[in-house]
Structures are given as C-alpha cells and as structure tokens.
Amino acid sequence: MKPLSSYISIIMIIILLSGCSSSSQDDISKEKLSIYTSIYPIQFLVERIGGDTVVTKTIFPPGVEAHSYEPTAKDMVSIAKSDAFIYMGGGMEGFSETIASALESEQVELIPLSANEELFEHSQRTEIHGAREEEHNHHDHNPHLWLDPIRMIRMGQSVKDVLIELNPDKRTIYEKNFNYLSIELKLLDKKFKETLQNKTKREILVSHAAYNYWEERYGIIQIPINGITSSEEPSQKDLVTIIKEADKSNLHYVLFEQNTINSVSAIIQKEIRAQAFVLHNLEVLTENDIEHGEDYFSLMYRNLNVLDKVTK
C-alpha cells in the first residue's frame, strides 16, 4: 500500500477540480451536518447525540484493523467536503497527523478527541502483566477510552460540544440526546460493576492490550499478547514469559478480537490448550455486526457476558 503522504498532491488537485460541481450538493447538505469519523464509537456518539440533524459516516470499511488502516484519496476528498472530521488521535489511527496536515487549508473542522486531556483524568498507571510492560508504558495514554462507559460519557460530552459549535440552533436537541445517552451508559457501568465486583480470579489473556480501563474501573487484570496496537508483536522471549504467566494464572481461555487475525495468539492458545472466546474492541463494526443491527450497547453487553464466563 502506498504511504498516505504520496496521495496529498493528488488529493488537493481532486478537491480543487470537484469544488466547482459541489455547490448543489452543498446546498442540500446544509440542512444537516455532514460528519465523518474514524472509529465506530465516535460514529455512534455522533448518531445518538446528533439524531436527525446529522449525516455521519466512518471512513473505516467493515472489519478492518483500525490501527494500520490508511484512508483512500476518495476518503480524503469526502472528508474535505464535510463539516467536520472527528477522530480519536493519540496514536489510535496511524493516519491522523497526515490527514490534519493534508486538509489544514480546507474548511472542514478537524477534531481529535484525545486533545481533551479531561478524557484521561483520574486514569492511574495500571499494572500491565507479562513481559511487555516497558513497551506499554512508552504510550502516554491508551486511546481505547470507549471501553469504559464512564469515559464514553466524557467522549460524548466532547462530541456534543462539537455539534453545538457547528449548529448552535440545535443545542436543545443535542443536550437532550446526550442526557439520555448518559443514563444508558451509567446503567451499563453499573451492570459491569455488579457482574465483576465479586470475582476473585480476574486475569484475562487478550490478543492486544486495549483493556487498561477495565483494569482500572472493574479490577480486570489483562495479560496482553500484543501491545496497544495489534501489530506490536512480542519477541520470542516475551512469548515464553506470556505462556509462563498464563500457566501460573491457570488460564484456560484466550480472548481474540473481531477485527484481527493474530497468529501469535493462536500459537499461545495451542500451547496452553486454551478455549477461544471473542472480545469486541468496538474499533470497527464487522459486516456481520452491521447485518444483525449491532451497536455499542449490544456489543458491550456481549463483552460483559464473555468476561463473566472467563472470570471466577
């Protein structure tokens, strides 16, 4: 795949050429905000809070690996024509800085949610079990905030503020929708706590280290095979240590993810004779998720069911 930077000059030409023919489309789109997003949780927030006042679309195709995906030139042109592109930043998407550079002269608002440090407040340095702790701590923040329902509320607050800034006439709608969503997220958090609070065996062997916030809020102890991005594979020495850690904790499960094929995790599963389960990291929806009408809440409750099975 070509590096994204090689598309920039082509993209700018396409944008200029397409500008003349976009006026009628712009007139129609003024009725609703046009919002592009990266990861699915942001798309979900925009849809739930914006309601009928927004048209939102993720640039990620179903089921892709979100950390390594690069948008196409067509994606970039679509983003440039929209009102805003809301993305996570903070290392979540590999392309975010390049997009910001390529589109800085366009009228589209570029909004990285991770720029809001309040999203990470009260986040303590959690213990990352296994051989990869040092590598993990090279990251200032783990960007997988949405897996914590309370931090998802904070993300929603940021999205609500963006929508109000873009369309202040709809403030009442956005605040009402946000308040309803907050209630649902608090109920989800309550259910996680009720299900996990009395567990005494909390270790989970996961394919990549996305679950720091479950450690902090619910006492889950993750043993990650890969780093914060699923492409950060362990060394041979790390593998030996992870297998020993799994044996020591008497783990009988390996938790794979819906959008990654991890050969290393499969090796460890075979080595420790573990049963496989799937956790949904919610970075992107799969074709199957879309076909069956899954959303943030249905997938998070499914994750909770998995955690309930693999902890004791």
Topology:
Elements: H1 8-19, H2 23-29, E1 33-37, H3 40-50, E2 54-58, H4 73-81, E3 84-87, H5 96-102, E4 109-112, H6 133-136, H7 149-166, H8 171-196, E5 203-208, H9 212-218, E6 221-226, H10 236-248, E7 253-257, H11 263-271, E8 275-279, H12 287-291, H13 296-310
Parallel strand pairs: 1-2, 1-3, 3-4, 5-6, 7-8
Taking all Cα atoms into account, the compactness measure Rg is 20 Å
Oligomer: single chain
Indicate the overall shape: globular
How many structural domains does the protein architecture include?
2
Helix content: 40-55%
User: How many beta strands in the DSSP annotation?
Assistant: 8
How much strand?
5-15%
Overall pLDDT confidence: 83
* Beginning-to-end CA distance, first to last residue: 44 Å
Low-confidence stretches: 20-29, 123-139
Determine and state the CATH class of the largest domain. Alpha Beta
Secondary-structure element pattern, one letter each? HHEHEHEHEHHHEHEHEHEHH
Largest sheet: 4 strands, parallel
Main sheet: which strands, in order across?
Answer: 2-1-3-4
Looking at this structure, what is the CATH superfamily of the largest domain? Nitrogenase molybdenum iron protein domain
How many helix segments?
Answer: 13
Can you tell me the CATH architecture of the largest domain?
A: 3-Layer(aba) Sandwich
Question: Could you please say which CATH topology of the largest domain applies here?
Answer: Rossmann fold
Helix/strand-derived class?
A: alpha/beta
Explain what the structure shows.
With 312 residues, this protein is α/β, with parallel strands linked by helices. It has two domains: 4-185, Nitrogenase molybdenum iron protein domain (Rossmann fold), CATH 3.40.50; 197-310, Nitrogenase molybdenum iron protein domain (Rossmann fold, 3-Layer(aba) Sandwich). It has helices at residues 8-19, 23-29, 40-50, 73-81, 96-102, 133-136, 149-166, 171-196, 212-218, 236-248, 263-271, 287-291, 296-310, and strands at residues 33-37, 54-58, 84-87, 109-112, 203-208, 221-226, 253-257, 275-279. Strands 2-1-3-4 form a four-stranded parallel beta sheet, with helices on both faces. Strands 5-6 form a two-stranded parallel ribbon. α5 links the parallel β3 and β4 (109-112). The longest helix has 26 residues, at 171-196. The protein is globular and about 60 Å long. Residues 20-29 and 123-139 have low confidence and may be disordered.
